[in-house]
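Reviewer comment 2.1 asked that we show a complete input and output for one of the modelled complexes. We chose the flavin-adenine dinucleotide case, as it is the one discussed in the main text.
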Amino acid sequence: MTEADAVLPDPATPPGAGPQPVEPPALVTPSAPAGGWTTATVAGLRRPIARSVELRLDVHDRVDHLPGQHYVVRLTAEDGYTAQRSYSVASAPGDPLVELFVERLDDGEVSTYLADVVEPGDELEVRGPIGGWFVWDGTSPALLVGGGSGVVPLVAMVRHARDIGRLDLLRVAVSARTLAELPYAEELAAAGALIVTTREAHGIRPAARMTAMDLLPLWEPGQTAYVCGSAAFAEAAGQLLVGMGVAPSAIRLERFGPSALEQPAR
Ligand SMILES: Cc1cc2nc3c(=O)[nH]c(=O)nc-3n(C[C@H](O)[C@H](O)[C@H](O)COP(=O)(O)OP(=O)(O)OC[C@H]3O[C@@H](n4cnc5c(N)ncnc54)[C@H](O)[C@@H]3O)c2cc1C
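Response of the prediction step:
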């Protein structure tokens, strides 16, 4: 197989099934803001696509985020049991509310609660913004590559770019099983994103996984690549980019994987 024949796994491919990960150097954005634990009121809630929920949060004593950062949401049961998970911010820094988009996993502990139980007016315990690596400050050219709900932090980047009139800095490629399962599909399409669907045709494009041939026209020297999705998707996308000649130091990966490590003790 040549490099150009390389393909990304379906966004639903189980972690570990794809090529080996690209490990980025341990660089951080020193100016990335960080916030502590606080509460947030659910100001709005929508279910724009099946099996997911979009939460609009009024975060008390909010620290403004940079696109790409995330929040931790902590749930506490009556017996004191707690569970916490990370969720990327979908909203731009200029949005008065913090928007999260949660894909509901049928056997998930936290995502099912957020998708099925939470109602407008509820209070949630949150910590954020968090993250100094997977952040875009709005000044440099970037290639955004997302799979499934991995598009969420990329949407924050697109929205921020739109707000500051710098959409020209971004090239975007996203993948989902079907268009109906792609979060923010219309908004991404309007921003010029290449949309790849793996289980159905999209336009003139037959159902197929993302390939290096998709990404090559979007890549320009000087870009930083932001890749987000399942562990398998992120690792394979990183390998595609490296195969195209992109320096590993120019690739930033964010993996949405099984979150056992986020589970604190009682
Ligand atoms: C930095 C970061 C940002 C994230 N941002 C988002 C986001 O914007 N939107 C979003 O929906 N999720 C996001 N996630 C994933 C999220 O943190 C949780 O892992 C996810 O919601 C599952 O939690 P759960 O409690 O429902 O499932 P769990 O009870 O933890 O797990 C249930 C089952 O699903 C498996 N599993 C866990 N997580 C995933 C996953 N992501 N994909 C496939 N299988 C999984 C587990 O192995 C287990 O079998 C992010 C993760 C990280 C690390």
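Residues 3-27+134-255 form a domain with the Rossmann fold fold (CATH 3.40.50.80). We note this here for comparison with the apo prediction described in Section 3.2.
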